[in-house]
Specification:
Helix content of chain B: over 70%
CATH topology of one domain in chain A: Rossmann fold
Number of helices of chain A: 10
CATH superfamily of one domain in chain A: P-loop containing nucleotide triphosphate hydrolases
Helix content of chain A: 25-40%
Oligomer: heterodimer
Number of domains of chain B: 1
Distance between the termini of chain A: 42 Å
Order of helices and strands of chain A: EEEHEEHEHHHHEHEHEEHH
Radius of gyration of chain A: 18 Å
Number of helices of chain B: 8
Radius of gyration of chain B: 20 Å
Largest interface: A-B, 20 and 13 residues
Shape of chain A: globular
Strand content of chain A: 15-25%
Largest sheet of chain B: none
Number of strands of chain A: 10
Strand order of the largest sheet of chain A: 6-7-8-3-9-10
Distance between the termini of chain B: 29 Å
Structural class of chain B: mainly alpha
CATH architecture of one domain in chain A: 3-Layer(aba) Sandwich
Chain lengths: ~250, ~240
């Protein structure tokens, strides 16, 4: 995560044989999947299936017991990857710093690393906020924003890094249906505009099937099914069908 | 508390290593410094005034009765600058500022704000811990100097106006000057400097290890205050032994 580049393009992400245990309880049981450059890949699964733990590994907050995560064929924590590629994460809660304004939150990466002069940062912040449909909100405090707006500010903050890989953790959780649709549209619109590699972790079936190029269904630390939305829908695994059906019924 | 002592020492060391970036974070340091001052000055004034008064009230009548009126200024002065001002003010700051630090960093931890900083390659030690530590390490000794002055004044006023004591201000001041040395004041300031590190490190550490939502934040705040007070009292004994030898 160094100086932002001007040209965005997605990267290939590979997860191989990822294992992780906490206090003897195995949370990830050998995950294997690959995300193609510029793809929206959704990992869907019930609570406790290991989605958040997987994300923490991807952003380096956890180290695996076994297995590896590769970006363009190189380990994710290698200096080469850290120098050449950038990734950003949109947290479930938005994770905006409550003591900073929206503008300061969005420009935090640039200002803390002194990558641009203040006037340039202000211009970039305004541009990224406009991208997510939040023009002229720079001076608002996060506490005065709705859940959907917080998520969109978090997306704008992620975009400032000019990432090649963007990770979304439950982007529609705690949102009303209209805000959830707006955030989902934002993810797709952003993807069409930038062709980043996007990895969306969610238990929201509508979001998963609405935005994904491919979907993996995760349960108890294992991938049960993986493929295009149509392939997953028709997967014969009874656990997959049960999860999809349950979510569908609950949505009705 | 003691199982985390190693982690706290590591945090202390990392915060020291982050000090060269203090100038870059000067706005945050000043912000924290003024917050500590704003939040504490009135409380420090009231507390020190009455502590000085109580010490005079507790010791002076007996000393006067035994014909040792000339020792009152010195006894009150020494008790305040060597012991009461640094210890009581540090405990006050642990409750008032340490708890706020633990709560703020703890809620940032629980609501993933610290994780967000890490994903932006922003070191939480540089961004959150170091400015708070530096601010408290500057602010607490200054507050203690202020507290010593106010407490002396409180003691002197009680000695002047209490019917059982009735020591005039010039007499209080002269015995005070005979006994209290500048070294005694420095000892008190040095103690407060050490206690400031303790309160800062313990509170920031508790904030950083907070788990489990609002209840976890509450637990961290309680632990930050209790652990700070316990360490202040233990270190007070050790420092007193060291400074008296």
């Amino acid at each position: 995560m160094n100086t932002p580049a001007s040209n965005q393009h997605g990267v290939r992400l590979q997860v191989r044989g990822l294992h992780k245990s906490y206090d003897g309880h195995e949370v990830l049981k050998g995950l294997d999947f690959e995300v193609e450059p510029g793809e929206i890949f959704t990992i869907m699964g019930p609570s406790g299936s290991g989605k958040t733990v997987l994300l923490k590994h991807l952003i380096g907050l956890e180290q695996p017991d076994a297995g590896e995560i590769l970006i363009e064929g190189r380990p994710i924590d290698s200096p080469e990857v850290m120098d050449r590629f950038r990734m950003a994460m949109v947290f479930q809660s938005g994770a905006l710093l409550s003591s900073l304004t929206v503008g300061e939150n969005v420009g935090l990466y640039l200002s803390e690393h002194r990558l641009k002069p203040p006037a340039e940062i202000a211009r970039i912040v305004a541009e990224k906020l406009e991208v997510v449909g939040l023009k002229d909100t720079e001076n608002k405090m996060p506490g005065n924003l709705s859940g959907g707006m917080i998520k969109r500010v978090a997306i704008a903050r992620a975009l400032v890094i000019d990432p090649q890989l963007i990770l979304y953790d439950e982007p529609t959780s705690e949102l009303d249906p209209l805000s959830a649709v707006a955030v989902a549209q934002e993810i797709v619109r952003l993807h069409e505009r930038t062709h980043l590699t996007s990895l969306v972790v969610t238990h929201d079936r509508d979001l998963a099937f609405g935005v994904a190029d491919r979907i993996a269904v995760l349960n108890e630390g294992r991938i049960l099914a993986m493929g295009t939305p149509d392939q997953v829908r028709s997967d014969p695994n009874p656990l997959v069908q049960k999860f999809l059906e349950t979510t569908f019924r609950r949505a009705i | 508390m003691f199982e985390n002592l190693g982690e706290m020492l590591v945090l202390f060391w990392r915060a020291l290593l982050a000090m060269p970036s203090a100038w870059r974070q000067r706005e945050k340091v000043f912000e924290q410094f003024f917050e500590i001052g704003n939040a504490s000055l009135l409380m420090v004034s009231i507390l020190s005034f009455f502590v000085g008064g109580v010490i005079a009230l507790q010791t002076a009548p007996t000393l006067v009765e035994k014909g040792l009126a000339s020792a009152v200024g010195g006894v009150v002065g020494l008790a305040i600058c060597r012991e009461l001002a640094p210890v009581i003010m540090s405990i006050l700051i642990a409750g008032r500022i340490g708890s706020a630090m633990a709560a703020e960093i703890g809620s940032m931890r629980v609501y993933q704000e610290i994780d967000a900083l890490r994903t932006m390659n922003i070191n939480p030690i540089h961004y959150l811990v170091m400015p708070r530590l530096l601010a408290i390490v500057i602010a607490l000794p200054l507050l203690v100097i202020f507290a010593i002055l106010v407490a002396w004044l409180g003691g002197a006023l009680v000695c002047m106006f209490n019917h059982d004591i009735e020591i005039p201000f010039p007499a209080f001041l002269s015995t005070f000057q005979d006994v209290v040395r500048l070294k005694d004041v420095f000892n008190g300031i040095f103690k407060s400097f050490v206690f400031a590190w303790v309160v800062g490190v313990v509170s920031c550490h508790q904030g950083l290890i907070t788990r489990g939502g609002p209840r976890g934040i509450g637990r961290s705040v309680t632990k930050a205050v209790v652990n700070s007070i316990v360490l202040i009292v233990i270190l007070d004994y050790l420092l007193t032994r060291l400074l008296m030898s």
